[in-house]
């Protein structure tokens, strides 16, 4: 393959995007990060990467970026991504995510870019008819957030047909964990993901973790979800580049193993040695009992497999990040994690 040398990463100051930037730099790419910093953190962008603070809604800024650099590929992470918020304000997601991505696609095709790797979502599949969720599962988005990602996938389909912009759309559920070197991790405001919330409950930053329903048809009555290490996601985003030499691709990503809420809590106590205070509340509307994504296609076609497949490794890396960065990117880092 002709290895791309200079790449653009939108949303590269965010959680998954910043880990992809680190992986790209480790593999010798020149990286330009574009982020509006509304959800991302400037401190998450390595000094080896060029940084542009701009919004995808600003077409003039996009035009300048594509004029200044010649990109061999674009990695597109920038998006609003809260499912609950999208249910409360669907227009914000259906319009904002879609139009901003259309701006990026237009700028890329105008500049002659031929490859785009898109961070999509397994929320495309809503409540699926079978598990694990493979690429042939009926697309029926479970939220306006998922619908916006599907709109973008369709736009990329036509960008390939009409302009030759080949794309890889990667669909996954729960990114988790942190970089093994302790420099990058998960820092959202507000935090909505289960593993960092459970870690906060273990460390006393939260009074407790609430389990939303313990009467589901699962082994312990709590919802089962697929958690995938953020560095494994970054590896998958790079691994699809050779395929884009000849075709566009769509892959689902998952560990293939689901873990219940109670299993996450038990693993957190095991890893940290701390007790997690728990309260059981009512179910949340629309929560399926089990959601697990299949990754058999990308494993078979591209040889991808998780390097951190077990729950203890995922939670352990997230815990190390939180010990080293108790204030997240906003606070000072601890030079050495406490023993």
TrEMBL record:
Homodimer. It comes from the Bacteria. InterPro entries: Epimerase_deHydtase (IPR001509), NAD(P)-bd_dom_sf (IPR036291), UDP_G4E (IPR005886). The keyword NAD applies. One of its GO terms (biological process) is galactose catabolic process via UDP-galactose, Leloir pathway. Residues 7-254 form the NAD-dependent epimerase/dehydratase domain. Pathway: Carbohydrate metabolism; galactose metabolism. Keywords: Carbohydrate metabolism, Isomerase, NAD, Plasmid. Belongs to the NAD(P)-dependent epimerase/dehydratase family. Its cofactor is NAD(+). One of its GO terms (molecular function) is UDP-glucose 4-epimerase activity. It catalyses: UDP-alpha-D-glucose = UDP-alpha-D-galactose. Its EC number is 5.1.3.2. Transmembrane segments: none annotated. This is UDP-glucose 4-epimerase. Gene3D superfamilies: NAD(P)-binding Rossmann-like Domain, UDP-galactose 4-epimerase, domain 1. The keyword Secreted does not apply. Pfam families: Epimerase.
């Amino acid at each position: 393959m002709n290895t791309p040398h200079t790449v653009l990463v939108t949303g590269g100051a965010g959680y998954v995007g910043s880990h992809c930037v680190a992986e790209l730099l480790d593999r010798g790419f020149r990286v330009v990060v574009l982020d509006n910093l509304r959800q991302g953190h400037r401190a998450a962008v390595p000094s080896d990467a060029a940084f542009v603070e701009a919004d995808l809604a600003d077409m003039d800024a996009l035009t300048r970026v594509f004029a200044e650099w010649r990109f061999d590929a674009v990695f597109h992470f920038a998006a609003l991504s809260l499912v609950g918020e999208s249910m409360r304000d669907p227009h914000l997601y259906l319009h904002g995510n879609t139009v901003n991505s259309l701006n990026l696609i237009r700028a890329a095709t105008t500049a002659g870019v031929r490859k785009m790797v898109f961070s999509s979502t397994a929320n495309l599949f809503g409540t699926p008819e079978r598990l694990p969720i493979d690429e042939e599962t009926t697309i029926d988005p479970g939220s306006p957030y998922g619908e916006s990602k599907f709109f973008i996938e369709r736009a990329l389909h036509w960008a390939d047909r009409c302009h030759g912009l080949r794309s890889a759309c990667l669909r996954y559920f729960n990114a988790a964990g942190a970089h093994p070197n302790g420099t990058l991790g998960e820092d959202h405001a507000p935090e909505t993901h289960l593993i960092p919330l459970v870690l906060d409950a273990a460390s006393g930053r939260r009074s407790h973790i609430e389990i939303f329903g313990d009467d589901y048809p699962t082994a312990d009555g709590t919802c089962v979800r697929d958690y995938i290490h953020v560095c494994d996601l970054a590896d998958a985003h790079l691994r699809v580049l050779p395929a884009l030499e000849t075709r566009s691709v769509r892959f689902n990503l998952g560990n293939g193993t689901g873990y219940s809420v109670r299993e996450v809590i038990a693993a957190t106590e095991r890893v940290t040695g701390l007790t997690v205070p728990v309260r059981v509340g009512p179910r949340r509307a629309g929560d399926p009992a089990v959601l697990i994504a299949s990754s058999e296609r990308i494993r078979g076609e591209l040889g991808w497999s998780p390097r951190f497949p077990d729950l203890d490794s995922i939670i352990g890396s997230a815990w190390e990040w939180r010990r080293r960065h108790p204030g997240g990117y906003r606070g000072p880092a601890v030079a050495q994690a406490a023993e």
